[in-house]
Design goal:
The chain has 441 residues and is of the alpha+beta class. The protein has helices at residues 19-30, 38-42, 56-62, 117-131, 145-148, 165-169, 187-197, 264-275, 320-325, 380-383, 392-400, 405-410, 420-429; strands at residues 11-13, 49-55, 80-93, 96-108, 136-141, 153-156, 159-164, 177-181, 202-206, 221-228, 233-241, 254-261, 283-288, 304-305, 312-317, 335-342, 355-362, 365-371, 387-391, 415-417. The structure holds coenzyme A (COA). Keywords: Transferase. One of its GO terms (biological process) is aminoglycoside antibiotic catabolic process.
């Protein structure tokens, strides 16, 4: 029988003093080093993240288990029963951007597993994302079902292709393009290109802040910058070259992190550079976005999906109004609708996903008025609107962008409109490429 969970759950913010306990919990769950260097032990836990935890002793005391703890006072001192990190990320939203809480390192101590702490921690994470003004939360999971119950929805499947190098070696030179080595001096130009060329995407991390330190990534990472005749930065390719050996199968001898360019010629010129390894390497591995333009430029039909399973990307809307307002309205799209989001997956008040929202697209912006479901619409204009009903899964899917109400219905999610014009407007506001995330965390 699982022990009853204390109410409220004693979740607290972890600080430097908890670094060793958190490391032990995390290394026990995910592997890795248990010990901390003196610098790690003294460093603040907080830059760029919020770390939450539950003390084992608090759980034991709250559930009465400490009474039977014997001479050690119940055990659990200096041990965490559960912990999780919320990484402070920014994500691209079809030309806008929003903060997103990236959930990492969620673990429950083996002594406390099976008691329901996992679900309670996920709810605490959602509440913290809300308290910290993050309209979304994102995580990677191989087993999405346990997160799905808390409103997270699969939005993307990270993909890598295995590409025969001989195909790239045949690409003809592209006039008017030259390549430069990427050094510490040129790295800011590459980062600016990433930000610019992925700004219209949905879900792609904005590579800023402590999780993406400036300078060269190191560890064998290399890149070339592509420059046009007029000196404009046009794109780049980045990769890691590995010696053949165990673990370098499926193109891992040349692992290409990304190939980004402004147009097809840019992508061709960059693929041609990668083709120059064809004398040494048979295949490369290329990480791609869901609808990556490079897919349309790859010559030959022999590229195949890498076979290894990768965790799925899940998103959860935390604050519906802020998630909508973070995205620009496409030029020429205007109108209004009422959106009702239902969220039975977390206790009421955990976050701001649920509610009734009057959504107005005007002048390239989305304005949102959150309302109690019983309140009348604010104006005659809004009175005449159609209403769209979403469950939290459909809301998480659609507000991340690049999907339609029909897509949500095909997945068996609730996405209903009483007026087709309201459905068409919402689809138009949330259009764009299907979500992608290249960075893992
Ligand atoms: C996964 C983990 C966090 C679950 O913690 P827990 O407190 O024991 O889980 P709970 O008791 O709250 O169970 C939550 C639900 O998830 C299910 N579940 C737990 N572990 C699971 C697993 N490894 N695979 C599939 N389902 C699992 C439980 O059966 C339960 O479902 P139910 O409500 O239908 O009974 C814990 O086992 C752990 O820390 N594992 C190692 C680290 C890890 O895998 N973290 C998650 C990374 S995505």
């Amino acid at each position: 029988m699982p022990s009853p969970l204390p109410d409220p759950l004693p979740v607290r913010s972890l600080t430097t003093a908890d670094a060793a306990a958190y490391r032990a919990l995390s290394a026990g769950a995910f592997g890795g080093r248990f010990d901390l260097t003196p610098e790690e032990a003294a460093a603040p836990l907080s830059p760029g993240q919020s770390v939450l935890g539950i003390d084992s002793s608090a759980m034991l005391a709250a559930t009465g288990a400490a009474d039977g703890g014997g001479a050690d006072g119940g055990g659990g001192d200096g041990v965490l029963a559960a912990g999780a990190r919320i990484l402070h990320h920014g994500i691209a939203l079809g030309g806008g951007r929003a903060r997103s809480g990236g959930v990492a390192g969620l673990a429950v101590h083996p002594a406390h597993r099976g008691d329901g702490l996992f679900g309670a921690m996920v709810d605490a994470v959602i509440a913290r994302c809300d308290a910290e003004g993050m309209p979304f939360s994102m995580l990677f999971a191989s087993n999405p079902e346990i997160y799905r119950r808390h409103g997270y929805q699969v939005v993307a499947r990270p993909e890598s292709l295995v590409v025969p190098l001989v195909d790239l070696q045949r690409i003809r030179p592209v006039p008017g393009r030259r390549t430069l080595p990427v050094t510490a001096a040129t790295m800011p130009r590459l980062r600016a290109l990433y930000t610019e060329l992925t700004a219209g995407d949905n879900g792609m991390l904005r590579r800023e802040g402590p999780h993406f330190p400036e300078g060269l990534p190191g560890g064998g990472w290399e890149a070339v910058l592509l420059v046009g005749e007029d000196g404009t930065d046009r794109g780049y390719a980045s990769w890691t070259r590995r010696r053949p050996g165990p673990g370098t199968a499926e193109g891992r001898e040349l692992e290409v992190h990304e190939v980004l360019g402004r147009d097809r010629d840019d992508l061709r010129a960059l693929l041609r550079v990668l083709g120059t390894w064809s004398t040494l390497v048979e295949e490369l591995r290329l990480r791609v976005r869901t609808e990556d333009p490079v897919l349309d430029v790859l010559p030959g039909g022999r590229a195949r999906r890498a076979s290894d399973a990768v965790p799925l990307v899940l998103m959860r809307v935390i604050d519906t109004a802020a998630a909508l307002a973070a995205r620009p309205a496409p030029a020429g799209v205007h109108g209004a609708l009422r959106l009702i989001v239902e969220d039975a997956t977390v206790p009421p008040g955990t976050c701001r996903a649920a509610g009734a929202f009057d959504v107005v697209a005007v002048g390239g912006q989305i304005r949102v008025l959150a309302q109690e479901p019983t309140e009348a619409a604010a104006s005659a204009d809004l009175d005449s609107l159609g209403t769209v009903h979403l469950d939290v899964h459909a809301a998480s899917l659609l507000l991340t962008g690049g999907r339609s109400l029909a897509d949500a219905r095909r997945l068996g999610l609730r996405a209903e409109a009483d007026d087709p014009r309201a459905a068409a407007l919402l689809d138009a506001l949330l259009a764009g490429p299907r979500p992608s995330v290249l960075d893992a965390f």
